[in-house]
């Protein structure tokens, strides 16, 4: 078992008399004096969050990139098969079950009011989906529980508002957030089956602001494992 | 194995007759003794050379439920520095009392107060059995099973609703106007008086609870004679959120985000300790890749935490520049962690069974890049501080913590190592990949603040060493290697990333990890297979380390309080839980 002793050495006389400790310290300070500023001038400059960033939630809509089990889930829960552009949510409440703060969700579904014989007779749609983000821990467990990859987390982090009420997002708001996000950055995060891409980047390389906080000396991103291909 | 062998424990049975030895599947060895023999037995364990359980780790209570008789059980966890293993000693708290352990280990003082506070168990012979986390006039004991999770709502507190809309809010936002009690000024005054019943000198100085120099919301009481401290007590609990109670009321994976919020500076390490305990209870072995990723992330987090410690420590002692330098490096680590896990602070990356996602493209490169620079930076910090005469005179021989204190108070982490005790759970338990990486344990000589400083500086270098080895190992792995436990038979054992429907078996387990702030241990007791824990005890390293503050500061000038607090480096989220 490796044990390494650390201990104090007393200051030598030379060090004491010639103030070597101070001079050495000053040298370090002066060395840093000429470096460029590394702070980001928020809000005029912003760093783009990485693809995996866990920000405000969104509800994805049907756009042809659903996972292979999507249809069977819709059937199993007796949900009206959604048209393109309609929400993917099947009101299964798995997200709520996985959440550490389940009371922040309010999810409801209703039977469609159609006469017998109509193809949608007896089927349901999700009608209410409220999330109170003031209670959310942004842990991401809900997104991992969702069987249809409906609930996702986006890169939005500025949640400040004047009233607590505005932290409750309803289904329209959530859908809009997701649509925006998928259009903006969906390619970075999801593959064509809505799963996380295998080659998700640690952070977006097009973002030049990040360079600042890395002292203008950014690492070059590359492959992790020997058998990976770009 | 870090537990006493059953054979050796059985010898105790032969010798005394009354102890009952049992071993759980998770490896934990516990001994049950009758209450009237409790102290005698512990004294033997502590003093006998063959057993030598000198070090106190934890004391807690299990509430078996209102219907059970006897209902409360005391649990003591001890460690033997000579043989490098632990033991659990249990006894039934008949009539809701237990004899005090404070005559054997001074460190039991706070633990017993906490047990009184949370369970209402009286410790006979305790010098001042007041509450630990709650205020003195609070009438309930919240960790009892009959206390509801949301508390007893007996106080009118309308302020959560928006006043403009009054009661007209509906749905998620119409908060109940009755809430659990909060302390009033009188309550706090009573609490303060009870904590320090006898004043020895003229002035009692209050420091905190909101002093920017403290590490969060801690409230110090210093009984001062001139500049020198004669007596000291600490009132904590301002950040108490009942994490243990929450742990008994949420599912297994769902508890991880709550552990994030304990020691928020090193959230990864908190997650780590918890998932280790849960995995041991489940009896699963996680995939190799997950082990190495977790080890690497835990060490990154340690550097992150130590950088924050160094910055604020130097800031507290008046060296402002340091703070800016360390935060620059810290930012890069946060950036990497954010890229890997999706969050900077409340990370929630580890899961029971591995990690929730593989490393993203470029993660290893960024980490390599970081650790290439880091040693040079640490040298920079050292040139600024280590030989500086002001730094030396503020730290050298200040507030010495002896080896004896380490065992008495159950000190762990850099505080123990600064006092020359090479106690490191990473070496004892060899959890995850720590058995396979090479690193040294830095230890100090005198146990003064300066030694604790040097130990942490060296720990950062050792962490870099570990990360280097992890990166090299991960590079050789395949992208197809699993990063999460694969269930062989879903019907028998269900381990899911999101935790829905995951059950952990009956049994008990104590597992810990070596956090930047000391040993964080989770003691989980599970009556039957369950979605939730029956008892979730969190042994907080920061809590026990902070306790020694009240001793080490005695006789020192008040200015040393800042140095001592900084070198103990508690985080209130963890001390209060
Ligand atoms: S991020 Fe976590 S806390 Fe927030 S809604 Fe999802 S599961 Fe719940
Ligand atoms: S888990 Fe997904 S599909 Fe199910 S209710 Fe939640 S968001 Fe809708």
From TrEMBL, chain A:
GO molecular function: 4 iron, 4 sulfur cluster binding; iron ion binding; NADH dehydrogenase (quinone) (non-electrogenic) activity; quinone binding
Gene Ontology CC annotations of this record: plasma membrane
Cofactor section: [4Fe-4S] cluster
Source taxon at top rank: Bacteria
One Pfam family hit: Fer4_7
Alphabetized InterPro entries for the sequence: 4Fe4S_Fe-S-bd, 4Fe4S_Fe_S_CS, NADH_quinone_OxRdtase_chainI
Positions contributing to [4Fe-4S] cluster 2 binding: 99, 136, 139, 142
Recorded catalytic activity of this chain's protein: a quinone + NADH + 5 H(+)(in) = a quinol + NAD(+) + 4 H(+)(out)
Bilayer topology term: Peripheral membrane protein
Domain (4Fe-4S ferredoxin-type): residue spans on this chain: 80-110, 127-156
Localization annotation: Cell inner membrane
EC number in record: 7.1.1.-
Co-factor: note: Binds 2 [4Fe-4S] clusters per subunit.
Keyword Lipid biosynthesis in record: no
Enzyme class: translocase
PROSITE patterns associated with the record: 4FE4S_FER_1, 4FE4S_FER_2
Residues reported in the UniProt entry to bind [4Fe-4S] cluster 1: 89, 92, 95, 146
The keyword Cell inner membrane is assigned to this record: yes
Role, per record: NDH-1 shuttles electrons from NADH, via FMN and iron-sulfur (Fe-S) centers, to quinones in the respiratory chain. The immediate electron acceptor for the enzyme in this species is believed to be ubiquinone. Couples the redox reaction to proton translocation (for every two electrons transferred, four hydrogen ions are translocated across the cytoplasmic membrane), and thus conserves the redox energy in a proton gradient.
Entry similarity comment: Belongs to the complex I 23 kDa subunit family.
Assembly, per entry: NDH-1 is composed of 14 different subunits. Subunits NuoA, H, J, K, L, M, N constitute the membrane sector of the complex.
Protein's recorded name: NADH-quinone oxidoreductase subunit I
Taxonomic source organism: Sulfurihydrogenibium azorense (strain DSM 15241 / OCM 825 / Az-Fu1)
From TrEMBL, chain B:
Gene: nuoC
Similarity comment: family membership: In the N-terminal section; belongs to the complex I 30 kDa subunit family. In the C-terminal section; belongs to the complex I 49 kDa subunit family.
Chain ranges of the NADH:ubiquinone oxidoreductase 30kDa subunit domain: 31-151
Region (NADH dehydrogenase I subunit D): 201-577
Domain of life the protein comes from: Bacteria
Function: NDH-1 shuttles electrons from NADH, via FMN and iron-sulfur (Fe-S) centers, to quinones in the respiratory chain. The immediate electron acceptor for the enzyme in this species is believed to be ubiquinone. Couples the redox reaction to proton translocation (for every two electrons transferred, four hydrogen ions are translocated across the cytoplasmic membrane), and thus conserves the redox energy in a proton gradient.
Summary of subunit composition and partner proteins: NDH-1 is composed of 13 different subunits. Subunits NuoB, CD, E, F, and G constitute the peripheral sector of the complex.
Organism per entry: Sulfurihydrogenibium azorense (strain DSM 15241 / OCM 825 / Az-Fu1)
Sequence segments annotated as region (NADH dehydrogenase I subunit C): 1-177
Enzyme class: translocase
Keywords, comma-separated and alphabetical: Cell inner membrane, Cell membrane, Cytoplasm, Membrane, Multifunctional enzyme, NAD, Oxidoreductase, Quinone, Translocase, Transport, Ubiquinone
Localisation per UniProt entry: Cell inner membrane
InterPro entries given in the database record: NADH_Q_OxRdtase_suD, NADH_quin_OxRdtase_su_C/D-like, NADH_UbQ_OxRdtase_30kDa_su, NDH-1_subunit_CD, NDH1_su_D/H, NiFe-Hase_large
Catalytic reaction(s) noted: a quinone + NADH + 5 H(+)(in) = a quinol + NAD(+) + 4 H(+)(out)
A GO term from the CC aspect: NADH dehydrogenase complex
Protein's UniProt name: NADH-quinone oxidoreductase subunit C/D
EC number of this enzyme: 7.1.1.-
Domain NADH-quinone oxidoreductase subunit D: residue ranges: 316-577
């Amino acid at each position: 078992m490796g044990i390494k002793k650390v201990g104090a050495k007393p200051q030598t006389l030379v060090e004491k008399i010639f103030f070597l400790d101070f001079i050495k310290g000053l040298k370090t300070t002066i060395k840093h004096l000429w470096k460029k500023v590394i702070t980001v001038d928020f809000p005029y400059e912003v760093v783009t969050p990485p693809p995996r960033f866990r920000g405000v939630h969104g509800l994805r809509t049907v756009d042809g990139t659903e996972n292979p089990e999507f249809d069977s889930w819709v059937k199993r829960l007796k949900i009206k098969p959604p048209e393109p552009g309609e929400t993917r949510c099947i009101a299964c409440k798995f997200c709520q079950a996985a959440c550490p703060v389940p009371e922040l969700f309010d999810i409801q579904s209703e039977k469609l009011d159609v006469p017998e014989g109509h193809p949608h007779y007896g089927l349901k749609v999700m009608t209410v989906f409220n999330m109170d983000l003031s209670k959310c821990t942004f842990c991401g467990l809900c997104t991992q529980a969702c069987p249809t990859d409906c609930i996702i987390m986006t890169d939005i982090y500025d949640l400040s508002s004047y009233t607590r009420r505005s932290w409750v997002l309803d289904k329209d708001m959530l859908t809009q957030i997701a649509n925006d996000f998928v259009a903006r950055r969906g390619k970075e995060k999801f593959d064509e089956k809505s799963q996380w891409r295998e080659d998700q980047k640690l952070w977006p390389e097009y973002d030049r602001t990040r360079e600042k906080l890395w002292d203008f000396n950014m690492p070059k991103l590359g492959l992790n494992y020997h058998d990976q291909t770009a | 194995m870090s537990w006493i062998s059953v054979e050796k424990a059985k010898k105790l049975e032969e010798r005394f007759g009354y102890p009952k030895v049992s071993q759980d599947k998770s490896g934990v060895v516990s001994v049950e003794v009758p209450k009237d023999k409790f102290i005698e037995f512990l004294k033997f364990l502590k003093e006998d050379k063959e057993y030598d359980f000198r070090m106190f780790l934890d004391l807690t209570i299990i509430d078996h439920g209102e219907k059970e008789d006897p209902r409360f059980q005391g649990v003591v966890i001890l460690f033997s520095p000579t043989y490098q293993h632990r033991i659990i000693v249990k006894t039934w708290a008949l009539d809701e009392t237990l004899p005090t352990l404070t005559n054997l280990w001074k460190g039991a003082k706070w633990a017993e107060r906490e047990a009184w506070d949370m369970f209402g168990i009286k410790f006979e012979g305790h010098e001042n059995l007041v509450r630990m986390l709650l205020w003195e006039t609070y009438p309930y004991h919240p960790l009892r099973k009959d206390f509801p999770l949301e508390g007893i709502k007996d106080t009118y507190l309308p302020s959560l609703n928006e006043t403009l809309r009054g009661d007209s809010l509906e749905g998620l936002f119409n908060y109940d106007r009755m809430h659990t009690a909060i302390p009033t000024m009188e309550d706090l005054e009573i609490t303060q008086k009870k904590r320090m019943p006898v004043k020895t000198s003229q002035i009692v100085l209050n420091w905190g609870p909101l002093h920017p120099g403290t590490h969060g919301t801690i409230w110090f009481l210093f009984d001062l004679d001139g500049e020198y401290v004669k007596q000291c007590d600490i009132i904590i609990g301002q950040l108490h959120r009942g994490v243990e109670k929450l742990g008994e009321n949420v599912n297994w994976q769902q508890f991880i985000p709550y552990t994030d919020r304990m020691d928020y500076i090193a959230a990864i390490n908190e997650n780590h300790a918890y998932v280790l305990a849960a995995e041991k209870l489940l009896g699963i072995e996680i995939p190799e890749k997950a082990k190495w990723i977790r080890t690497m992330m835990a060490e990154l987090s340690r550097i992150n935490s130590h950088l924050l410690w160094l910055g604020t420590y130097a800031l507290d002692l008046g060296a402002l520049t340091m703070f800016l330098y360390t935060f620059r490096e810290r930012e890069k680590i946060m950036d990497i962690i954010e890229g890997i896990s999706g969050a900077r602070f409340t990370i929630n990356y580890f899961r029971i069974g591995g990690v929730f996602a593989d490393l993203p493209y470029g993660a290893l490169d960024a980490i390599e890049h970081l650790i290439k620079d880091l040693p040079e930076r640490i040298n920079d910090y050292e040139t600024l501080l280590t030989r500086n005469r002001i730094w030396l005179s503020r730290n050298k021989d200040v507030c010495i913590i002896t080896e004896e204190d380490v065992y008495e108070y159950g000190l762990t982490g850099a505080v123990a190592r600064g006092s020359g005790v090479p106690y490191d759970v990473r070496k004892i338990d060899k959890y995850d990949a720590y058995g396979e990486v090479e690193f040294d344990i830095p230890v100090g000589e005198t146990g003064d603040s300066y030694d604790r400083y040097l130990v942490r500086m060296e720990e950062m270098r050792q962490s870099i060493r570990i990360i280097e080895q992890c990166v090299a190992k991960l590079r050789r792995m395949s992208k197809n290697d699993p990063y999460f436990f694969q269930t062989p038979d879903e019907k028998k054992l269900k381990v899911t990333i999101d935790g829905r429907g995951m059950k952990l078996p009956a049994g008990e387990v104590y597992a810990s990890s070596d956090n930047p702030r000391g040993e964080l241990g989770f003691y989980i007791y599970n009556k039957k297979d369950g979605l939730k824990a029956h008892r979730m005890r969190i042994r907080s390293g920061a809590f026990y380390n902070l306790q020694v503050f009240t001793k080490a500061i005695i006789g020192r000038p008040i200015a040393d309080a800042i140095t001592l607090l900084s070198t103990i480096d508690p985080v209130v989220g963890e001390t209060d839980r």
